[in-house]
Amino acid sequence: MTTALQSLDAFLESPESRRDVTRAVRVLLDAARSMIVVFGDAQTAAALVAVLAKTYPAKNIHGGLIEVNPTRLTTMPVQAEARDLADVTPTQVLRSMLRQDPDVIALTNVDAESAPLVLQSAFTGHAMIVGVAASSVEAAVEALTLAEPGLAGHVRSSIEVAIEVDTGRIRRVFRGTQEVVSARGQVMREALPMPAARGPTHTPRFAPPLTSLPPASLQPRVAFLPVTSAAAVARSSIATTAAFRPAGSTWPLCRACQQPLSHVVTLELSALPAPLTGGDGLAQLFVCSHGCDTTTEAAPGVLAEVVTGATEQLEAPPEAHIDVCAPGAIVDFVRFEEDPLVEGNDHRPLRCDKLGGWPAWEQGDAWPLDDDGARMELLFQLAEEPVLQGGKSAGWDFEAAEVVPGERPSVVLDPNSPRHFNSLLSGSAVAFLFRGATSGRLAFRWQTG
Ligand SMILES: [Zn+2]
User: Fold this and answer.
1) What's the gap in Å between 292 CA and the centre of ligand 1?
2) Has this prediction a pTM greater than 0.85?
């Protein structure tokens, strides 16, 4: 698949030497909110307008690219083939689109018929990318204001970016009246707008470092897929907002940020199927979801303990709620046997939420050791990354002259590979709760791929 940058490069004659020009145009396009005028020979201007529309940087927009002779419409962001609309004029398509309040409209060639409507669109807050057959910015302004010459000053000042093209290449670029790309192809970096901050503001969390540990033995191990039910009540549960805790206690807090920990899993050890069955007590894992240290069971953002004695059900404070799919009481354990991960073998332990079995290491073995030096056994594994299903991208219904809004995909639980936690640790981590056979202690580790 070609990237947006490559598509723009391909438009230019000598991509490597003109990479800076390509980047400058992309940055300007990203920052522009009103008029972008491509002027020069009609054919090159039209081609560049089409490329800019198809590589438009913002994805959460709706709009369209209108091509002329014959009239064709492509929705933005581009999802489908262009639609031929030979029996209507570009102006009619533009008028029809405006009823839907689009964010961006690209029109490959402005003519006397479409110019007034192009201006009206730009003045009413729609970002416009238009091609004009003109030899200068002034001539382009003149072509746009033929019907109303009095608007020339206003139009000149609303042109945010002007790109001069000439026989298949970009010649000069202006931001307002300021030259960004000179006729010699030199980019004035100081004339480029500062990019806006993007993306998540949270601090990424990195998996803890590996320790070197003894090699695994190779027998299959029994494992179980947990089946949860939101309606049922059981002492074993996954990601429920209520949890059984020592009688008289309060909801556990993170020892770093003092905020409530999130309940990951509670396992009633005596009720687990063989060979995982243990003595009395609840093995519990709580994790801080506010970015604190969660590297091991000893980290301040982790509580991994076996609770014995009298318990009572506590309800989690709202700050402890996390993004989970199908939390609930564990009502069934689906048994299967699992081979360990062997070098050169593509048979991998299941990377999902499970009890027992082999750890689906992402970065190689990192077994915690029990007091007697023996490897602890895997009690519970959770794997992040939600399974998404359905969803539709937005489209343009020309007959109804309206944008058909997209639908967000929903997070579903795959019963053959359940993953309850969408983004507890890093969003793509596999985490392991181990139990020592000798000490009965719990250990916590996690890795990312
Ligand atoms: Zn914390």
Assistant:
1) 4
2) no
